[in-house]
Amino acid sequence: MTVSTALRLRQICLLAYDLEWTSGMLSAAFDAPVVFRDPRMAAGGDLTNTHIRLGDTFLETVSPSDHAWAKSTTQTRLLERNGDCGYMAIVQVPDVALASQTMSVQGSGTGIVAGSWNICDGEPGSGLAGVKSGPYELGTPLTKQPDSVSGVNVQFHPRDFGTLAEIQENWPGQDSFPQNKGTYYPAGNTWQNDVDSRPHGGVTTGFAAVEIACRDIDPAEICLRWVNGLGAGCSLVHDDPTALQLADFQTMRFVESRNGRTGVIGVDLWEAPGRRKFDSLEICGVKWRTVPYPV
Fold first, then answer.
1. CB-hemisphere CA count at 13 Å for 53?
2. pLDDT tens, 200-215?
């Protein structure tokens, strides 16, 4: 079965003590700018964030506020246990109504941890003025209205997927690549305006793979849950029950926990043509490697 072109690893999220320090290191290492800070997240009081654009994929870093530390949130407890670390893998899906239902019954069947919809008048690149949002209800299709941009995000528990898992559907234009300039709400709605002049930085054109360490559950079982949950033609890598294939040659790999570390522990990046600057390095508790794009 053919993998849907929309089924891609679109975003990785990191968790860090110091947002500005970590974001600065990532921007310098990958020659890529911060393109968005979500004002609604900051207004919530517990987290602040940055989004760095790597081609048409995004690297988010979140950091707890003083308010979050005072009341001991999930994120502060995770930092106390692991230090700076990988936090979440976000996969774009062609049909969030279907995928939200199939993801929600995997493993323990915990269902949705969090989810929301967003819509505003405009087009990709026109900004988010007048954006409306609300909680997502399992199985609801994404609203697709003329002269508007819309998106849905749904999160699922790490005990079922090895890490905090999120699926995304955005409209219009998410299934185009490379140099995608369609809607992608998590990174705002102005990043598209720079893609033509600077498709990518000097190090990478985007994500090639993510590696997720699993605690107390066979990595092959976690991998199968993702395959069954994502659907859309997603399949296991040939002869490897611990890896799955997404569109555009992307993969997700699952391994046993190492030294108590779980969740996102490694990310492979496609090398920018002729500009390779490192083989591997570690930032925010994650090992980053550059790999050649298949020819």
1. 26
2. 999 999 999 999 999 8
Cβ contact 204:272 at 8 Å: yes
- Give the residue carrying structure tokens 């269902």: 111
Domain map (residue ranges) of the chain:
8-291
Distance CA 281, CA 220 (A): 27
3-class state of residue 268 by DSSP: strand
Token code pair at residue 174: 């998410």
Q: How many CB atoms sit inside 10 A of residue 174's CB? A: 24
pTM, full prediction: 0.96
Residue 141 vs residues 36, 109, 189, 267, 277: alpha-carbon distances, Å = 26, 21, 21, 31, 42
Specify the amino acid at residue 87: Y
CA dist 252 → 8, 131, 137, 240 (Å): 10, 33, 27, 11
Topology (CATH level 3) of domain 8-291:
2,3-Dihydroxybiphenyl 1,2-Dioxygenase; domain 1 (3.10.180)
Q: How far is CA 216 from the centre of its chain?
A: 24
Nearest to 209 by CA among 179, 175, 176, 240: 240
